[in-house]
Amino acid sequence: MVKVYVSAVLDATIDQAWGVLRDFNGLPDYHPFFATSTIEGGKPADQVGCVRNFKDHDGGVIREELLSLSDREYLCCYRILEAGLPVTDYVAQMRLFPVTESNQTFGEWWAEFGVAPADEEETVARVHDTFRLAFESVSRRFGG
């Protein structure tokens, strides 16, 4: 199993950052990699068990299932059901913490997954960039 971990301090309050990142269907609204997203079956985007079906700008399809979402803990966990990435058993978690001294937010996002050695370097880089760009985009939205 490979683990990818990204952390960042976001130039946003925790409520601002969480307001964007908790939307399981909102990736295309702030992330440069993704073009469209829908929640299958018309379920709410914050319902555990819902599946988001989204596309990147190259037409690649990704389906992910929401495993947990906590507004109290500022925590989201999900798994990949289908993707163009050569991964197995992919589970990711994103969590936010307030930085009380500066009224900013500390975010961490990690994923664990299986990947063939030949695909590991490229896959790890893509997952890392996905998490990093999400945090950067949210930070820029609120002034960073």
Automatic annotation (TrEMBL):
Gene3D superfamilies: 3.30.530.20. It holds the Pfam family Polyketide_cyc2. Signal peptide: none annotated. This is Polyketide cyclase / dehydrase and lipid transport.
